[in-house]
DNA sequence: CTTGCGGTTAAGAAAC
DNA sequence: GTTTCTTAACCGCAAG
């Protein structure tokens, strides 16, 4: 498009006289198409023989202010037919970045050549006329240049014009134009097809990449699940070893060893996941924990144990105690944020106090849900006892 | 600003 | 179906 807009400075190779000013009237370089602006246009000479060129002139009216395609250096005007020049330019479109590689099965130039050979793009000369012309041109020392040819032919043909000639020319003109249009349609159609094909290919590649990404993700998930399972196995083995050790010590010592509650086999880190999974099948449990936010009794006990541990260690409730508690909960296999731990603790205590103060009777069926009451009560007792001792 | 605490509310489950 | 219990989550206030 840049080329057509006239601002393309890209240098193409020598086949195309890119440095030639197509509208430069000084040497008549573009008169073949637009007619001489100095000595009168082609159309001013109705009896010109070069019908195809005349057609081109009709198709492309002379530009008024459009800047021609220029490049840095002026090259000598070639003795080439304009259609050859056009073909050469079209063939360079891919190089110039207008079309992708292989936009056309064969070079456009060759297509044009084919069209010419098959007579689709006749230049409007009959063999005889052409030979005649050649002779005349050579007599005038003019090269095979559209302008020279057309102008010299025009001047001569004026004298030879007759009515039958005019009718034939008119027909040829129409025919040529139709063929030109047909050819251009074909070119555009071919370009569009090519672009469509490329677009489809691009979509295919994108789909393939997306598929690959999903596949990798799946593989990663699988791997992660495997790793978790392995961890769980190791933990179980460790627990079994510990239990057998404890049993052995028991038999050796002959005394009952109290195992702290928090030494219960910890749940795997994915217990939250399990909760959500089990929540679905937990019409079976008292509370479905359907929301996934409810704390199961074991988790509540773990929280209380963690809290009492930290309290023993620090002796204070201040500071980042809930961070420590959250970390301890994680060690036990429960993933709860410090904020959640704190909230749960507060809510639990609130409810405990409310119930204790209110002296409400526990629902028999709900005794399980308040399994933490006992632990909390113990905790309060020990706390108050230690406070009394300090006093 | 952080922390602890009390109050409130909506939602879910069990008891009636 | 209604009532009651239990819980999570949010808000505000006071103390440090």
Automatic annotation (TrEMBL):
Residues 134-179, 268-293, 357-391 are annotated as: Disordered. It is found in: Nucleus. Residues 294-349 form the Myb-like domain. Residues 166-177 have a biased composition (Basic residues). Residues 271-282, 380-391 have a biased composition (Polar residues). Residues 143-154 have a biased composition (Low complexity). Gene3D superfamilies: Homeodomain-like (1.10.10.60). InterPro entries: Homeodomain-like_sf (IPR009057), Myb_DNA-bind_4 (IPR044822), SANT/Myb (IPR001005). It comes from the Eukaryota. Its main location: nucleus. This is Trihelix transcription factor GT-2. Keywords: DNA-binding, Nucleus, Transcription, Transcription regulation. One of its GO terms (molecular function) is DNA binding. One of its GO terms (cellular component) is nucleus. PANTHER family: FI21293P1 (PTHR21654), HOMEODOMAIN-LIKE SUPERFAMILY PROTEIN (PTHR21654:SF7). GO terms for biological process: regulation of DNA-templated transcription.
């Amino acid at each position: 498009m840049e080329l057509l807009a006239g601002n393309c400075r890209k240098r193409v190779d020598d086949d195309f006289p890119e440095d030639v000013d197509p509208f430069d009237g000084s040497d008549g370089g573009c008169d073949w198409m637009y007619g001489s602006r100095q000595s009168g246009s082609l159309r001013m000479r109705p009896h010109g023989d070069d019908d195809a060129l005349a057609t081109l002139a009709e198709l492309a009216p002379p530009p008024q202010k459009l800047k021609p395609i220029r490049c840095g250096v002026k090259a000598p005007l070639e003795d080439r037919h304009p259609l050859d020049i056009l073909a050469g330019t079209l063939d360079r479109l891919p190089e110039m970045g207008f079309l992708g590689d292989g936009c056309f099965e064969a070079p456009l130039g060759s297509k044009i050549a084919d069209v010419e050979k098959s007579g689709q793009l006749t230049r409007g000369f009959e063999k005889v006329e052409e030979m005649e012309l050649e002779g005349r041109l050579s007599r005038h020392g003019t090269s095979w240049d559209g302008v020279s040819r057309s102008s010299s032919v025009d001047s001569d043909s004026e004298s030879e014009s007759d009515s039958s000639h005019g009718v034939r020319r008119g027909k040829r003109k129409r025919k040529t134009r139709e063929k030109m249009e047909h050819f251009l349609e074909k070119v555009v159609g071919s370009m569009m097809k090519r672009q469509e094909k490329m677009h489809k290919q691009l979509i295919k590649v994108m789909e393939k990449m997306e598929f690959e990404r999903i596949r990798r993700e799946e593989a990663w998930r699988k791997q992660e699940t495997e790793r978790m399972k392995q961890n769980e196995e190791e933990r179980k083995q460790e627990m079994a070893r510990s239990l057998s050790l404890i049993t052995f010590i028991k038999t050796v010592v002959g005394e009952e060893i109290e195992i702290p509650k928090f030494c219960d086999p910890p749940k795997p880190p994915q217990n939250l996941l399990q909760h959500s999974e089990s929540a679905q099948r937990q019409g079976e449990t008292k509370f479905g924990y359907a929301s996934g936010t409810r704390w199961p009794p074991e988790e509540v006990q773990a929280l209380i144990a963690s809290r009492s541990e930290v309290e023993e260690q620090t002796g204070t409730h201040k500071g980042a105690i809930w961070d420590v508690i959250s970390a301890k909960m994680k060690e036990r296999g429960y993933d709860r944020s410090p904020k959640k731990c704190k909230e749960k603790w507060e809510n639990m205590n609130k409810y405990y106090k409310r119930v204790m103060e209110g002296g409400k009777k526990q629902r028999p069926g709900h005794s399980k849900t308040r399994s933490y009451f006992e632990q909390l009560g113990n905790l309060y007792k020990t706390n108050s006892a230690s406070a009394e001792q300090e006093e």
